[in-house]
Structures are given as structure tokens and as C-alpha cells.
């Protein structure tokens, strides 16, 4: 069996006296689509930041078969794409959506080298795929939240990552755009087959391609199994300490609370 894309053993994160992550053990294989779910403060984003190289930790972390430290190798950095949580953009900031996407090739081309024709063409293809090519020449601060999130996703994909990390990609978006983003993630997974780690609160919009769910609470993993086995009324009610009911409608999973 091939080496896992990510292998974590007894990983811990402390901030001062607070234990943010405790005893995390996790493996992710190539092409696997995994969701990380749980209430606020569960440690989901911290776990993502550890994998991305933005968080100090103790324990063992291996990426693509090689041990990872805070100072990552160039090869490790190039193989990991990150889409962080959506942030406000200054409408006066003088950079277009296309230029933001093109920054995704800086790691491969070199920071001071101009992108070649292949990279420019690929950037256009990704913007078409993500349905944001109409905004290519617009300042990034003029775009809607959904458009900016799709631009961020195109930027990460231009890097050609083997591992794609997504931190709450639908937070703050309206229902139609949330569904579109999750459907696009399924399309990306089918076309490019990266390993994907999706941190989300959005139980009502979980992409069908996500077959594995990791539930976190209090900085620890409490369940890790196929979605159908993890996202049950019993497990979710224990996770959120309230009555939770799951149901399927038109092939999608929804939840309600008591």
C-alpha cells in the first residue's frame, strides 16, 4: 500500500496553558476526501493549520512519506494547497481576480519570474471551471464573497496540489452559493483527484464525494469513520450536547436540532 499523504501520531498543540489539540492520530490516503466537523473551539482549524505548516506542535507529522517540521521543504509546500476562511477585501486594493489566481504559480515558477504561457492558460481554464472567468479583470475587492472564494480555490488549484485543505469554504455565503461551492469541490475531486481535507460546519451541504468524516470535540478526535457511520443522530447529539436529527433529501444529508 502506498504511503499516506498525511500521517499524524500523538500530535498535541498548546497555547500557553491551554491544550488546543490532544493526542491526535490520523492518516489520509491519496485521493481521499475527508471532512472534519465539530462545534466551535473543537480544534478543527488548528488541525488544518498544523498540516499546512502554520502551527507549532509536538508529536509526529509526515507529509508524502517525509517527516514534516515547521520549516517545510519546498517540495512539501508545493504539494499542499490551502483555501483559508473568507476574509473581507478592500475594494480599493489594486489587484484583479486573475492576478490573484496567478499568484498560485509563484511557488513553481519562482517569486520573481513571470508566469509562462502554460500557467496563464491553466489559470484561465480553472477560472472557467469554477465559473468565475467573467470577473477575471475586476478588482478582487469588487467581487462577491462567493466569487472571491472561487478565486481563492482557483489560486490553490493552480499550484497543482496533491493535498487540498479547505477551512470553512462556505461560511458566510448564501444557500445557493454554498451548494455551488460544494458541487464544485465534487467536480474538482473527480477531475483532479487530490486528497481533500474539508473543515466545515455546513452539515446541510456536505458534498457527496466526501466519504469519510472526522468528528472533533475539545481538541480531540471522537469519531473517524465513513460518513454513513459517523453522521448519526446519536453521534451528533453527543457532539453538540443537544438533540440532533439527520435525514436525506434528494441525495443530500440535512440535520435539524431540538
Task: Give a quick rundown of the structure.
The protein is of the alpha/beta class. It is 31% helix and 28% strand.
Structure description:
This protein has 258 residues and is α/β, with parallel strands linked by helices. Helix content is 31%, strand content 28%. The strands form 3 sheets. Strands 6-7-8-3-9-10 form a 6-stranded mixed beta sheet, with helices on both faces. It is globular, with a radius of gyration of 18 Å. The model has no long low-confidence stretch (mean pLDDT 89).
Q: What does the largest sheet look like?
A: 6 strands, mixed
Strands, count:
12
The global form is: globular
Give the strand order of the largest sheet, numbering strands 1, 2, ... along the chain: 6-7-8-3-9-10
Q: What's the pLDDT, averaged over the residues?
A: 89
Main structural class: alpha/beta
**Tally of DSSP helical segments:** 9
- Which stretches are low in confidence, meaning pLDDT under 50 for 5 or more residues running? none
Beta-strand percent range: 25-35%
Radius of gyration: 18 Å
State the end-to-end distance.
44 Å
Helix content: 25-40%
Write the element-wise H/E pattern from the N-terminal end onward.
Answer: EEEHEEHEHHHHEHEEEHHEE
List keywords for this structure.
alpha/beta, six-stranded mixed sheet, 9 helices, four-stranded antiparallel sheet, 12 strands, 258 residues
Amino acid at each position: 500500500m502506498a504511503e499516506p499523504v498525511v500521517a499524524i501520531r500523538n500530535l498535541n498543540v498548546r497555547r500557553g496553558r491551554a491544550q488546543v489539540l490532544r493526542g491526535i492520530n490520523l492518516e489520509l490516503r491519496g485521493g481521499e476526501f475527508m471532512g472534519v466537523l465539530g462545534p466551535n473551539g473543537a480544534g478543527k482549524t488548528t488541525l488544518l493549520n498544523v498540516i499546512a505548516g502554520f502551527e507549532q506542535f509536538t508529536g509526529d507529522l509526515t507529509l508524502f512519506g517525509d517527516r514534516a517540521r515547521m520549516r517545510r521543504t519546498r517540495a512539501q509546500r508545493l504539494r499542499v494547497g490551502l483555501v483559508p476562511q473568507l476574509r473581507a477585501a478592500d475594494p480599493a486594493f489594486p489587484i484583479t481576480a486573475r492576478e490573484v489566481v496567478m499568484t498560485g504559480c509563484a511557488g513553481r515558477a519562482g517569486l520573481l519570474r513571470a508566469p509562462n504561457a502554460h500557467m496563464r492558460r491553466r489559470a484561465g481554464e480553472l477560472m472557467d471551471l469554477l465559473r468565475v472567468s467573467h470577473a477575471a479583470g475586476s478588482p478582487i475587492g469588487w467581487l462577491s464573497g462567493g466569487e472571491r472564494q472561487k478565486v481563492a480555490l482557483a489560486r490553490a488549484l493552480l499550484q497543482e496540489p496533491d493535498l487540498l485543505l479547505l477551512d470553512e469554504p462556505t461560511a458566510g455565503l448564501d444557500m445557493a452559493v454554498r451548494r455551488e461551492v460544494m458541487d464544485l469541490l465534487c467536480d474538482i475531486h473527480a477531475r483532479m483527484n487530490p486528497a481533500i481535507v474539508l473543515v466545515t460546519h455546513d452539515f446541510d451541504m456536505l458534498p457527496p464525494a466526501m466519504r469519510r468524516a472526522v468528528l472533533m470535540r475539545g481538541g480531540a478526535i471522537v469519531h473517524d469513520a465513513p460518513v454513513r457511520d459517523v453522521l448519526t443522530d446519536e453521534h451528533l447529539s453527543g457532539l453538540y450536547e443537544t438533540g440532533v436529527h439527520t435525514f436525506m433529501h434528494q441525495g443530500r444529508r440535512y440535520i435539524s436540532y431540538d
